[in-house]
Amino acid sequence: MPHHPVSRLIQDTRHAAALIRCGGVVAYATEAVFGLGCDPTNASAVKRLLDIKQRDPAKGLILIAADFTQLAPYLKPLEGTLAARAHQSWPGPVTWLWPANPDTPDWLTGDHDTLAVRVTDHPQAAALCRLAGPLVSTSANLSGQEPARTAEVVAQQMDHLLDGILAGTVGTRDRPSEIRDVLSGEVLRA
Predict the structure, then answer these.
(1) CA-only gyration radius of the chain, Å
(2) What CATH number does residue 87 fall under?
């Protein structure tokens, strides 16, 4: 198979963050796979991301952040021991289903009253969040396909659909983040 250059490859995290702040959809490396991200407050960007991914909006989405303060506006406050359950796993590859604030947009929560959130420990993803704010983060693949682990695979599947692919290397995990319920502690995806 001939090698095709990645036409939307971006080397600079600041450039990727600027695209996101302007309503763009960008692919970037995370703990285990490449993710697709956009500004969670931009309804048209989120709709476009869902369309690109061919993802059912009712499922809801994950938000990643560089620290908890970026996620707090979207979440209901929890009593100390419940919140501590999540905070002890962060930064790290654990996503928590957390009760959402009533004003959190349904384009993020889907048909749920919770929001999936993670404080990432992937250095590049965290740097992108520090520059662009919290991000919608879903695996960079079309529904039903394996998540992409390289920028080249993202480009083969969806280069023409994205505003940019941030050059980077995924972390050492072999599977996407674990998902747990913050109220029950139940593991929903190992």
Answers:
(1) 16
(2) 3.90.870.10
In a domain, 2, yes or no: no
Q: Say what the pTM is.
A: 0.92
Closest to 60 measured CA to CA, from 118, 113, 126: 113
Determine contact, residues 13/128, Cβ cutoff 8 Å.
Answer: yes
Which 3-state string (H, E, C) describes 159-186?
HHHCCEEECCCCCCCCCCCEEEECCCCC
Alpha-helical runs (H) found in the chain = 13-21, 43-53, 68-71, 80-87, 106-109, 123-132, 151-158
- pLDDT tens digit sequence for 93-125: 899 999 999 999 999 999 999 999 999 999 999
Structural domain total, the chain:
1
Question: Domain range spanning residue 162?
Answer: 9-189
CB distance 19 to 163 below 8 Å: yes
